[in-house]
């Protein structure tokens, strides 16, 4: 019975969140970090003015005013400093890259690391070891499985969709078509690199949602065991060649690994009726925020840190497809929640040239020619919304919160409770100038053009007058025609929120638009450690409570256009950076590195496999 999913998934999540008195420890730790960070802000803010000229490569726009007053200004300055710190670790040659690898990973680089670096160098890739952290976060728990077991759990006998490499050729192995055509995109990328790749089997998830949820206690233990066992093999022990899989392909037949997929996570859990409860949306500053604004992107995306999200995000209410497993098996996919154990690849959407996601590479106009407003079009996805649940869905909340008419109705108390998805921030909480008149809604109507293109009704009425409409949401949403990506680039602000999982347009927005990309998401992606919030994009909280403060800061504030210049700078930084680190070549390098590591993990000699610099064996 579907009406129990909310509790089911939440309960499941609670098991993958840190538990027991560890929660307390975690909180203490988080508070410490928060305090330290705040001190750092103040330090940065005070010392910034003197260094303003040497701050950043992107110098077309001026830097912030001398004494930052607003929390957003402080966050921007902090982000700039963080980026400088990160870039100071860039590796310009192979020996530095290998050294940085060893320092950060506690192991030798994998065999054939030199070919990887050569490609990076030839493609002008910015090599900062930290940019690859995601790979190690994803793979480390797998060091606690025996190589033989890993091979058994990753091959075509255990999975429906596998991309393999044998003798430097990429092979696509699928038992049936994947609905979204993701496999060919990933396969093509691996094919381009195959001449340099070791034998490997990559089982791929072709569904929208992430699939693996190993209980937190188990993962935590595995991660600790891996860290304890890590070492740099002495040069005399190192073997520099992968064993390869032909031998393994002819290994005596074993029972194939039978993945235990659970198709209904909420089975056996008794239902709780949440549907008619009022919206449980906290209006205080979000936890871990800096005066209400996101300061730690990782923490802001973590559902374990924000329990209210279980009734404010479609993923936890009723995902469209759900098919999870609790055992640690390798499975590669495009995005995941922090609690999932999937291994991330750059999403197939980012490799596609589909107009819907890529906008065909067309660039947006110059900043001065853009409209000082906010645009968004999308479908009412984010899960399967129903008459009893839609007010809990994040996309519905998002569209309503940026609808001036609805906000005005909320301000005057005339928005019916059964059609309300959100709460407004308390008066004065975000110091929003535009609401000084008691008319945030009126102001929003002037600056936003945010609407659904389809309401995604469930069940679809048997005789729909128009299949884009929906009886229970029609009164609250107006369906508008889609706007092509390149036309959206004519607006200065492009917010981006989750759909059924991550949103596929984020990369194109950053790479092509030249507008400020506002981003709220629960999902982790391959690029997380190479993008800096407040420098390359503007992060916002998953309740969206801070969005008015953000728009007000950039658009409404009476500041003689200073904040508009800041926005122009973020837009420019985002585009310049995306064209340096989110290119196809960068995704190729990421996947290549991931495959080297995964092939090593699956190799019986993995503890001694590595690359050694001939000149310098440290
Ligand atoms: C590599 O770069 C480092 C630091 O930039 C430099 O000290 C070193 O001499 C370079 N090594 C080679 C072989 O060029
Ligand atoms: C964000 O918080 C996490 C978890 O507490 C911490 O490990 C990380 O260093 C923080 N990041 C920043 C940029 O402060
Ligand atoms: C407040 O309302 C007045 C009159 O309607 C308008 O001119 C002014 O721009 C509004 N202030 C803001 C900040 O929107
Ligand atoms: C909206 O825009 C109109 C026309 O530019 C202006 O007269 C009006 O004051 C604006 N309303 C608010 C609330 O800012
Ligand atoms: C905005 O909200 C009003 C009031 O609920 C609603 O009638 C209208 O259709 C909404 N507009 C959009 C674009 O969803």
**Number of DSSP E strands:** 12
Q: Report strand %.
A: 5-15%
Radius of gyration: 25 Å
Under CATH, the topology of the domain at 357-581 can be stated as Rossmann fold
Name the poorly predicted regions.
1-12, 20-65, 264-273
Summed up, the helix count is 22
How much helix, percentage-wise, in residues?
A: 25-40%
Main β-sheet, in a few words? 5 strands, parallel
> Would you state the CATH class of the domain at 357-581?
Alpha Beta
Quickly give the structural class: alpha/beta
Shape: globular
**pLDDT averaged over residues:** 84
Query: Which hetero ligands occur in this complex?
Result: 2-acetamido-2-deoxy-beta-D-glucopyranose
Protein name: Glycosyl transferase CAP10 domain-containing protein
Transmembrane segments: 23-43
Domain Glycosyl transferase CAP10: 299-605
Keywords: Membrane, Transmembrane, Transmembrane helix
What does this molecule look like?
The chain has 618 residues and is an alpha/beta fold. The protein has 22 helices and 12 strands. The chain has helices at residues 5-16, 22-51, 71-87, 94-105, 113-122, 133-139, 147-154, 182-193, 216-229, 246-249, 297-300, 314-317, 348-351, 355-358, 394-401, 404-411, 440-447, 485-488, 506-513, 547-556, 562-581, 584-601, and strands at 161-166, 169-174, 200-203, 332-333, 336-337, 343-344, 371-379, 448-454, 491-496, 516-519, 523-524, 538-539. Strands 8-7-9-10-12 form a 5-stranded parallel beta sheet. A 3-stranded antiparallel beta sheet has the order 2-1-3. Helix 2 (22-51) packs across helix 3 (71-87), helix 5 (113-122) runs antiparallel to helix 22 and helix 19 packs across helix 21 (562-581). It starts with a helix and ends in a 17-residue tail after the last helix. Residues 1-12, 20-65 and 264-273 have low confidence and may be disordered. The structure holds 2-acetamido-2-deoxy-beta-D-glucopyranose (5 copies). Residues 439, 442-443, 446 line the site of one 2-acetamido-2-deoxy-beta-D-glucopyranose (NAG).
């Amino acid at each position: 019975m579907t009406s129990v999913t909310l509790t089911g998934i939440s309960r499941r999540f609670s098991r993958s969140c840190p538990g027991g008195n560890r929660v307390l420890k975690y909180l203490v730790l988080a508070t410490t970090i928060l305090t330290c960070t705040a001190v750092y802000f103040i330090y940065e803010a005070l010392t910034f003015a003197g260094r303003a000229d040497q701050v950043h490569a992107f110098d077309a726009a001026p830097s912030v005013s001398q004494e930052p007053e607003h929390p957003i200004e402080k966050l921007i300055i902090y982000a700039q400093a963080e980026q400088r710190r990160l870039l100071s670790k860039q590796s310009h040659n192979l020996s530095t890259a290998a050294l940085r690898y060893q320092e950060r990973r506690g192991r030798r680089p994998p065999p054939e690391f030199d070919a990887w670096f050569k490609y990076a160098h030839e493609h002008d890739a910015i090599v900062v070891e930290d940019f690859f952290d995601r790979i190690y976060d994803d793979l480390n728990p797998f060091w606690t499985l025996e190589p033989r077991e890993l091979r058994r759990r990753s091959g075509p006998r255990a999975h429906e969709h596998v991309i393999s490499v044998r003798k430097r050729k990429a092979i696509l192995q699928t038992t049936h078509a994947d609905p979204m055509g993701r496999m060919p995109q990933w396969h093509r990328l691996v094919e381009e690199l195959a001449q340099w790749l070791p034998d490997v089997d990559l089982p791929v998830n072709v569904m929208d949602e992430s699939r693996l949820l190993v209980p937190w206690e188990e993962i935590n233990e595995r991660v600790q065991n891996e860290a304890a066992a890590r070492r740099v093999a002495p040069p005399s022990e190192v073997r520099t060649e992968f064993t390869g899989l032909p031998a393994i392909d002819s290994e005596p037949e074993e029972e194939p690994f039978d993945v235990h997929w659970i198709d209904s996570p909420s089975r056996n859990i008794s239902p709780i009726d949440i549907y008619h409860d009022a919206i449980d949306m906290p209006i205080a500053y979000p936890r871990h925020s800096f005066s209400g604004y996101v300061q730690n992107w990782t923490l802001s995306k973590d559902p374990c840190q924000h329990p209210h999200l279980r009734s404010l995000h479609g993923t936890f209410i009723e995902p469209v497809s759900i098919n999870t497993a609790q055992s640690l098996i390798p499975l590669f996919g495009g995005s995941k929640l922090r609690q999932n154990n999937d291994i991330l690849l750059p999403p197939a959407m980012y490799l596609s040239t589909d107009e819907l996601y890529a906008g065909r590479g067309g660039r947006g106009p110059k900043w001065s020619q853009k409209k000082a407003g906010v645009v968004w079009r999308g479908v009412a996805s984010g899960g399967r919304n129903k008459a009893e649940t839609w007010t809990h869905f994040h996309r519905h909340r998002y569209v309503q919160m940026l609808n001036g008419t609805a906000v005005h109705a909320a301000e005057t108390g005339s928005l019916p409770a059964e059609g309300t998805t959100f709460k407004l921030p308390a008066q004065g909480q975000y110091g929003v100038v535009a609401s000084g008149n008691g008319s945030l809604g009126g102001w929003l109507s002037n600056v936003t053009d945010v609407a659904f293109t389809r309401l995604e009704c469930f069940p679809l009425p048997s005789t729909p007058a128009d299949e884009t409409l929906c009886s229970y949401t029609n009164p609250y949403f107006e369906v508008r025609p889609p706007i092509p990506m390149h036309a959206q680039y004519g607006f200065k602000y492009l917010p981006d929120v989750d759909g059924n999982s991550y949103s596929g347009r984020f990369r194109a927005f950053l790479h092509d638009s030249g507008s400020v990309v506002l981003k709220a998401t629960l999902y982790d992606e391959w690029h997380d450690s190479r993008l800096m919030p407040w420098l390359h994009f503007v992060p916002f909280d998953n309740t969206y409570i801070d969005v008015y403060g953000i728009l007000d800061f950039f658009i409404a504030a009476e500041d003689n256009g200073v904040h508009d210049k800041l926005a122009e700078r973020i837009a420019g930084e985002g585009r310049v950076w995306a064209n340096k680190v989110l290119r196809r070549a960068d995704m190729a390098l990421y996947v290549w590195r991931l495959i080297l590591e995964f092939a090593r993990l699956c190799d019986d000699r993995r503890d001694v496999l590595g690359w050694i610099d001939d000149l310098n064996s440290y």
